[in-house]
Design brief:
The chain is of the alpha/beta class and 490 residues long. The chain folds into two domains: 267 residues, Aldehyde Dehydrogenase, Chain A, domain 1 (3-Layer(aba) Sandwich), CATH 3.40.605.10; 178 residues, Aldehyde Dehydrogenase, Chain A, domain 2 (3-Layer(aba) Sandwich), CATH 3.40.309. Helix content is 39%, strand content 21%. It contains 16 helices and 23 strands. The strands form seven sheets. It has a seven-stranded mixed sheet with strand order 14-17-18-13-12-20-21, with helices on both faces. Strands 9-8-7-10-11 form a five-stranded parallel sheet, sandwiched between helices. It has a three-stranded antiparallel sheet with strand order 5-6-23. Strand 17, helix 13 and strand 18 form a beta-alpha-beta unit. The protein is globular and about 75 Å long. Bound molecules: NADP nicotinamide-adenine-dinucleotide phosphate. NADP nicotinamide-adenine-dinucleotide phosphate (NAP) binds next to helix 8 and helix 9.
């Protein structure tokens, strides 16, 4: 262990424990926290069972109503302190995120900046208007106000562990809910301990945030518990379907932010040097383990060879290795199962006629940046979310065909269009079935203030972030006030 055990995230605080308002033992087995590139052990964290969920619900329920009644100033003070702590400990946190998720320091820094924006957005929420006065014909005062759900279950994945958990935890708390957080066990420090420590030190009243690392049984216990009326889930479409079914059976509100097979469309008039860097970033950033990664690079046939050549040169130049070392661009994939999946998609697609132009193999968890040319409908590389560093190039002949190809997917998360003709790009954009649309940018673009989410198998129509957060994390109550009770004909 290096200096990362020293301070804010000091492992002696949480070794073998989970967080219920205090660091305490859970009933599940210990989770071994690892450095994904080096394969070394960073610590051991406690884990929960469905029984711990029951206990957490009772603590959180007691804390929630008191928290909802706290003043604006009291709530804001917590978020202000959390922002300060995030800034002070950012170097240490960045190292944890990089090691535990196998990402570069630059990616961890992006995460920390996003986390800061999320906290600052949450800081503002308690001071925002939370209702409206409605017109009335009877003389009564008619109000609609937004109230917290009570308890919110947050289930998050491994790839952007801090941001994808915090983007639900922070606004849910800010509008008066208590939260039960189940991070992915592979990144339970960056996506769990870090958040619990932030709010613990920031003075969040004990009990409001329950950290319950554990397996899918813990996630399912959260989904079915009758006292948790809302679930915010980010992860695969497969698990999201299950979460949606369970939550639906219990008539819960559920926000599902799921997978993607996103197209980056390069028109013939695009600047190809810029198109190449955009396509490279969208394909290989964080080893392609991003829901918004470009799963398809659709390029006009007349410029396909040149763009392909530029991408191949970039793939050959990028450095793969331990992201803690200088100059490394791509780190490891998260686990061996994911490596096998990526390898099989590449191999099957090549057998089906795709041309392997760069990469295509791995050493341990380290997969080379890969370029597949002539990818076409029916090939796994065209159809499936890969979640690995594979650029899949498919030529098109006109705008109409490009739109048809981009829409030819069950997913609908993000599309980017690169063109010097913004009007033509926007006309294409109007026909696309996507939650996020970038004109003249690649597909991996997000931000704290935007309503993030997808269509089709990328989600259930929920949005998270910015203007969507009040809608997600509160519900309407109609309040009517009369001077005296009216008389009725009964
Ligand atoms: P995953 O397998 O679905 O896991 C995500 C989380 O769900 C983990 O905490 C996991 O815990 C939990 N989980 C799994 N099965 C569950 C169940 N039956 N009930 C309750 N919880 C359950 O996702 P992943 O493969 O690690 O992550 C990658 C996927 O997430 C990709 O498809 C990616 O596109 C998507 N993603 C989407 C967004 C977005 O905002 N749209 C952002 C990032 C990633 P266990 O691991 O313990 O089972």
């Amino acid at each position: 262990m290096t200096n990362i055990e020293a301070k804010f995230l000091d492992a002696t605080r949480w070794r073998g424990l989970l967080f219920t308002g205090e660091w305490t033992r859970g009933q599940g087995p210990v989770i071994t926290v690892t450095d994904k590139a080096a394969g070394t052990v960073l610590g051991e964290l406690g884990s929960a069972t469905p029984k711990d969920v029951e206990h957490a619900v009772s603590i959180a329920s007691k804390a929630q109503s008191l928290w909802a009644a706290r003043t604006v100033e009291e709530k804001q003070a917590v978020f202000r302190r959390a922002m300060n702590l995030l800034e002070k400990a950012s170097s240490e946190m960045g190292e944890w995120i990089a090691r535990e998720s196998g990402g570069t320091r630059a990616k961890a820094e992006v995460e920390l900046r996003r986390a800061h924006t999320i906290l600052s957005e949450a800081y503002a929420m308690p001071a925002e208007a939370c209702g409206m006065v409605l017109p009335t014909t009877t003389g009564r005062l008619s109000l609609a106000r937004r109230l917290p759900h009570g308890l919110v279950g947050v289930i998050a994945p491994f790839n952007y562990p801090l941001v994808l958990a915090l983007r639900a935890v922070a606004p849910a708390l800010a509008v008066g809910n208590a939260v039960l957080l189940k991070p992915d066990p592979q990144t339970a420090v960056s996506g769990g301990v870090l958040i619990a420590r932030l709010f613990e030190e920031a003075g969040l009243p004990p009990g409001l945030l329950q950290l319950l690392p554990g397996d899918s049984a813990v996630g399912e216990a959260i989904c079915v518990h009758p006292s948790i009326p809302m679930i915010a889930f980010t992860g695969s479409t497969r698990a999201g379907r299950r979460v949606g079914e369970l939550a639906g059976r219990h008539l819960k509100r559920v926000s599902l932010e799921l997978g993607g097979k996103n197209s980056l469309i390069v028109r013939a008039d695009a600047d190809l040097k810029l198109a190449a860097t955009n396509a490279a970033f969208a394909s290989w950033m964080h080893q392609g383990q991003i829901c918004m990664a470009a799963g398809r690079i659709l390029v006009h046939r007349t410029v396909a060879d040149e763009l392909t050549q530029r991408l191949v040169e970039k793939a050959q130049r990028l450095k793969v290795g331990d992201p803690m070392a200088d100059g490394v661009d791509l780190g490891p994939l998260i686990n061996a199962r994911q490596v096998e999946h990526v390898q099989s998609v590449v191999d099957d697609s090549v057998s089906a006629g795709a041309r392997l132009l760069a990469g295509g193999s791995h050493t341990g968890l380290f997969f080379l940046p890969t370029v597949l040319g002539s990818v076409s409908k029916g090939m796994r590389a065209y159809e499936e979310e890969i979640f690995g560093p594979v650029a899949c190039i498919t030529p098109f002949d006109d705008d109409e065909q490009a739109v048809e190809m981009a829409n030819d997917s069950d997913y609908g998360l993000s599309v980017g269009i690169l063109s010097r003709d913004v009007r033509a790009a926007l006309a294409m954009g109007n026909e696309l079935r996507t939650g996020l649309l970038q004109i003249n940018d690649q597909t991996i673009v997000s931000g704290g203030q935007i309503p993030f989410g997808g269509r089709g198998c990328s989600g259930n129509g929920s949005r998270i972030g910015g203007p969507a957060n009040w809608e997600e994390f509160t519900q309407w109550q109609w309040v009517a006030i009369n001077g005296q009770a009216p008389s009725y004909p009964f």
